[in-house]
Design a protein that fits this description.
9 helices, 2 domains, alpha+beta
Length: 241
Amino acid sequence: MANKPKITNVGEPAVYRVKIKDWPEGERPREKMIARGAEALSDAELLAILINSGTGKKSALDVARDLIHRYQNVRELSRRTVKDLTSQEGIGPARAINILAAFELGRRSAAIADDASDTISSPEDVTRRFIPKMRDLTHERFVALLLNNSGKILREYTITDGTVDSTVVHPREVFRAAVSELATSVILLHNHPSGKKIASRADHDITKQMVEAGNMIDIPVQDHIIICGNDYISFKENGWM
Protein backbone atom coordinates (compact mmCIF):
# COMPACT_ATOMS: atom_id res chain seq x y z
CA MET A 1 0.00 0.00 0.00
CA ALA A 2 1.41 3.41 -0.98
CA ASN A 3 2.41 5.79 1.78
CA LYS A 4 -0.18 8.42 2.58
CA PRO A 5 0.77 12.05 1.96
CA LYS A 6 1.92 13.83 5.10
CA ILE A 7 -0.48 16.50 6.34
CA THR A 8 0.44 19.40 8.62
CA ASN A 9 -0.87 19.72 12.18
CA VAL A 10 -4.54 20.27 12.85
CA GLY A 11 -5.43 23.95 12.72
CA GLU A 12 -2.83 24.70 10.03
CA PRO A 13 -3.65 24.95 6.32
CA ALA A 14 -3.59 21.49 4.74
CA VAL A 15 -0.23 20.97 3.01
CA TYR A 16 0.50 17.65 1.37
CA ARG A 17 4.11 16.45 1.29
CA VAL A 18 4.46 13.60 -1.17
CA LYS A 19 7.86 11.92 -1.25
CA ILE A 20 9.56 11.71 -4.65
CA LYS A 21 9.43 7.90 -4.50
CA ASP A 22 5.62 8.17 -4.42
CA TRP A 23 5.47 10.36 -7.55
CA PRO A 24 4.44 8.88 -10.91
CA GLU A 25 7.50 7.11 -12.30
CA GLY A 26 7.83 9.42 -15.31
CA GLU A 27 8.13 12.47 -13.03
CA ARG A 28 10.85 11.17 -10.71
CA PRO A 29 14.23 12.79 -11.55
CA ARG A 30 16.23 9.54 -11.65
CA GLU A 31 13.71 7.63 -13.75
CA LYS A 32 13.25 10.65 -16.01
CA MET A 33 17.01 10.84 -16.55
CA ILE A 34 17.20 7.14 -17.44
CA ALA A 35 14.32 7.41 -19.89
CA ARG A 36 15.08 10.78 -21.50
CA GLY A 37 18.69 11.68 -20.68
CA ALA A 38 20.23 14.26 -18.35
CA GLU A 39 19.49 17.12 -20.76
CA ALA A 40 15.75 16.61 -20.18
CA LEU A 41 16.04 17.48 -16.49
CA SER A 42 15.77 20.96 -15.02
CA ASP A 43 18.58 22.42 -12.91
CA ALA A 44 16.58 21.68 -9.78
CA GLU A 45 15.96 18.07 -10.81
CA LEU A 46 19.68 17.47 -11.44
CA LEU A 47 20.52 19.03 -8.10
CA ALA A 48 17.86 16.92 -6.37
CA ILE A 49 19.61 13.77 -7.60
CA LEU A 50 22.81 14.93 -5.88
CA ILE A 51 20.93 15.86 -2.71
CA ASN A 52 19.38 12.37 -2.80
CA SER A 53 16.71 12.74 -0.11
CA GLY A 54 14.66 15.45 1.51
CA THR A 55 13.75 16.43 5.04
CA GLY A 56 10.64 15.72 7.07
CA LYS A 57 9.04 18.81 5.59
CA LYS A 58 10.46 18.99 2.07
CA SER A 59 11.38 16.66 -0.76
CA ALA A 60 14.87 16.67 -2.27
CA LEU A 61 13.44 18.66 -5.18
CA ASP A 62 12.02 21.28 -2.81
CA VAL A 63 15.42 21.61 -1.12
CA ALA A 64 17.09 21.92 -4.53
CA ARG A 65 14.69 24.64 -5.64
CA ASP A 66 15.24 26.56 -2.40
CA LEU A 67 19.01 26.37 -2.88
CA ILE A 68 18.90 27.63 -6.48
CA HIS A 69 16.46 30.39 -5.53
CA ARG A 70 18.75 31.49 -2.71
CA TYR A 71 21.74 31.93 -5.03
CA GLN A 72 19.71 32.95 -8.12
CA ASN A 73 21.26 30.43 -10.52
CA VAL A 74 23.51 27.36 -10.64
CA ARG A 75 26.59 29.35 -11.62
CA GLU A 76 26.36 31.44 -8.46
CA LEU A 77 25.64 28.26 -6.52
CA SER A 78 28.82 26.69 -7.91
CA ARG A 79 30.90 29.48 -6.33
CA ARG A 80 29.74 28.73 -2.79
CA THR A 81 31.65 26.90 -0.07
CA VAL A 82 30.67 23.92 2.07
CA LYS A 83 29.96 26.37 4.89
CA ASP A 84 27.64 28.40 2.65
CA LEU A 85 25.66 25.38 1.50
CA THR A 86 25.27 23.82 4.93
CA SER A 87 23.54 26.97 6.15
CA GLN A 88 20.59 25.90 3.97
CA GLU A 89 17.98 23.67 5.60
CA GLY A 90 18.29 20.11 4.31
CA ILE A 91 21.96 20.40 3.28
CA GLY A 92 24.54 18.77 5.53
CA PRO A 93 28.31 18.49 4.94
CA ALA A 94 28.05 15.27 2.89
CA ARG A 95 25.44 16.73 0.54
CA ALA A 96 27.35 20.00 0.21
CA ILE A 97 30.51 18.07 -0.71
CA ASN A 98 28.60 16.04 -3.33
CA ILE A 99 27.25 19.22 -4.92
CA LEU A 100 30.58 21.06 -5.01
CA ALA A 101 32.43 17.98 -6.28
CA ALA A 102 29.97 17.74 -9.19
CA PHE A 103 30.53 21.40 -10.07
CA GLU A 104 34.31 20.94 -9.96
CA LEU A 105 34.12 17.94 -12.29
CA GLY A 106 32.08 20.06 -14.69
CA ARG A 107 34.71 22.81 -14.62
CA ARG A 108 37.51 20.33 -15.25
CA SER A 109 35.62 18.72 -18.11
CA ALA A 110 34.99 22.11 -19.73
CA ALA A 111 38.68 22.98 -19.44
CA ILE A 112 39.82 19.96 -21.47
CA ALA A 113 40.57 20.98 -25.05
CA ASP A 114 38.68 19.13 -27.77
CA ASP A 115 41.93 17.96 -29.36
CA ALA A 116 43.31 16.86 -25.96
CA SER A 117 46.50 18.76 -26.79
CA ASP A 118 48.54 20.77 -24.30
CA THR A 119 50.21 22.83 -27.02
CA ILE A 120 49.79 26.60 -26.73
CA SER A 121 50.04 28.77 -29.84
CA SER A 122 47.66 31.66 -29.05
CA PRO A 123 45.85 33.37 -26.16
CA GLU A 124 42.70 31.49 -27.22
CA ASP A 125 44.45 28.18 -26.52
CA VAL A 126 45.05 29.39 -22.97
CA THR A 127 41.63 30.89 -22.33
CA ARG A 128 39.77 27.89 -23.75
CA ARG A 129 41.35 25.81 -21.02
CA PHE A 130 41.41 28.27 -18.15
CA ILE A 131 38.28 30.44 -18.39
CA PRO A 132 36.10 27.51 -17.19
CA LYS A 133 38.54 26.84 -14.35
CA MET A 134 39.13 30.41 -13.16
CA ARG A 135 36.16 32.62 -14.07
CA ASP A 136 34.13 31.69 -10.97
CA LEU A 137 36.92 31.90 -8.39
CA THR A 138 36.06 34.32 -5.59
CA HIS A 139 39.73 35.12 -4.99
CA GLU A 140 42.68 35.97 -7.23
CA ARG A 141 44.89 33.12 -8.41
CA PHE A 142 48.23 33.65 -10.15
CA VAL A 143 49.46 30.81 -12.36
CA ALA A 144 52.58 30.29 -14.45
CA LEU A 145 52.32 27.99 -17.47
CA LEU A 146 55.74 26.48 -18.07
CA LEU A 147 56.30 25.60 -21.75
CA ASN A 148 58.86 23.69 -23.79
CA ASN A 149 60.20 24.56 -27.26
CA SER A 150 57.08 23.15 -28.93
CA GLY A 151 54.71 25.22 -26.80
CA LYS A 152 53.60 22.18 -24.80
CA ILE A 153 52.61 22.81 -21.19
CA LEU A 154 55.13 21.08 -18.95
CA ARG A 155 53.50 22.26 -15.75
CA GLU A 156 50.69 24.49 -14.53
CA TYR A 157 52.24 26.13 -11.47
CA THR A 158 50.07 28.08 -9.01
CA ILE A 159 52.16 30.87 -7.50
CA THR A 160 49.57 32.43 -5.19
CA ASP A 161 45.96 32.03 -4.14
CA GLY A 162 44.81 35.37 -2.79
CA THR A 163 45.80 38.96 -3.47
CA VAL A 164 47.97 39.40 -6.55
CA ASP A 165 50.54 42.19 -6.29
CA SER A 166 54.23 42.69 -6.89
CA THR A 167 55.12 42.05 -3.25
CA VAL A 168 53.49 38.60 -3.26
CA VAL A 169 54.23 37.42 -6.81
CA HIS A 170 58.01 37.35 -7.06
CA PRO A 171 59.99 36.35 -10.18
CA ARG A 172 62.07 34.03 -8.02
CA GLU A 173 59.08 31.72 -7.48
CA VAL A 174 58.14 31.66 -11.16
CA PHE A 175 61.59 31.10 -12.63
CA ARG A 176 62.77 28.65 -9.99
CA ALA A 177 59.93 26.39 -11.15
CA ALA A 178 60.70 27.13 -14.82
CA VAL A 179 64.36 26.13 -14.42
CA SER A 180 63.38 23.00 -12.48
CA GLU A 181 61.04 21.89 -15.28
CA LEU A 182 63.56 22.80 -18.03
CA ALA A 183 60.99 25.20 -19.47
CA THR A 184 62.04 27.43 -22.37
CA SER A 185 59.28 30.03 -21.94
CA VAL A 186 56.50 31.07 -19.57
CA ILE A 187 52.95 32.40 -19.84
CA LEU A 188 51.57 34.28 -16.84
CA LEU A 189 47.90 33.95 -15.99
CA HIS A 190 45.63 35.32 -13.30
CA ASN A 191 41.97 36.17 -12.80
CA HIS A 192 39.91 39.17 -11.78
CA PRO A 193 37.12 37.89 -9.49
CA SER A 194 35.15 41.08 -10.21
CA GLY A 195 35.13 40.23 -13.92
CA LYS A 196 36.30 43.75 -14.78
CA LYS A 197 38.26 43.84 -18.03
CA ILE A 198 40.83 46.38 -16.87
CA ALA A 199 44.54 45.78 -16.32
CA SER A 200 45.60 47.57 -13.13
CA ARG A 201 48.84 49.39 -12.47
CA ALA A 202 49.90 46.42 -10.34
CA ASP A 203 49.21 44.06 -13.28
CA HIS A 204 51.50 46.13 -15.50
CA ASP A 205 54.20 46.33 -12.81
CA ILE A 206 54.19 42.56 -12.24
CA THR A 207 54.39 41.91 -15.98
CA LYS A 208 57.32 44.28 -16.45
CA GLN A 209 59.15 42.71 -13.52
CA MET A 210 58.59 39.18 -14.85
CA VAL A 211 59.60 40.05 -18.42
CA GLU A 212 62.86 41.62 -17.25
CA ALA A 213 63.69 38.64 -15.03
CA GLY A 214 62.89 36.15 -17.79
CA ASN A 215 65.07 37.96 -20.31
CA MET A 216 68.01 37.86 -17.90
CA ILE A 217 67.99 34.04 -17.76
CA ASP A 218 66.79 33.45 -21.34
CA ILE A 219 63.35 32.11 -20.36
CA PRO A 220 61.07 34.70 -21.99
CA VAL A 221 57.57 35.54 -20.82
CA GLN A 222 55.36 35.01 -23.86
CA ASP A 223 52.23 36.67 -22.49
CA HIS A 224 50.34 37.71 -19.39
CA ILE A 225 46.66 36.82 -19.64
CA ILE A 226 43.98 38.03 -17.23
CA ILE A 227 40.74 36.05 -17.01
CA CYS A 228 37.79 38.46 -16.66
CA GLY A 229 34.65 36.35 -16.35
CA ASN A 230 34.02 34.93 -19.82
CA ASP A 231 36.46 37.38 -21.40
CA TYR A 232 40.17 38.03 -21.11
CA ILE A 233 42.99 40.55 -21.51
CA SER A 234 46.20 39.57 -23.31
CA PHE A 235 49.19 41.83 -22.71
CA LYS A 236 50.77 40.52 -25.92
CA GLU A 237 47.69 41.23 -28.05
CA ASN A 238 47.51 44.74 -26.61
CA GLY A 239 51.17 45.44 -27.38
CA TRP A 240 52.03 45.98 -23.71
CA MET A 241 55.06 43.69 -23.77
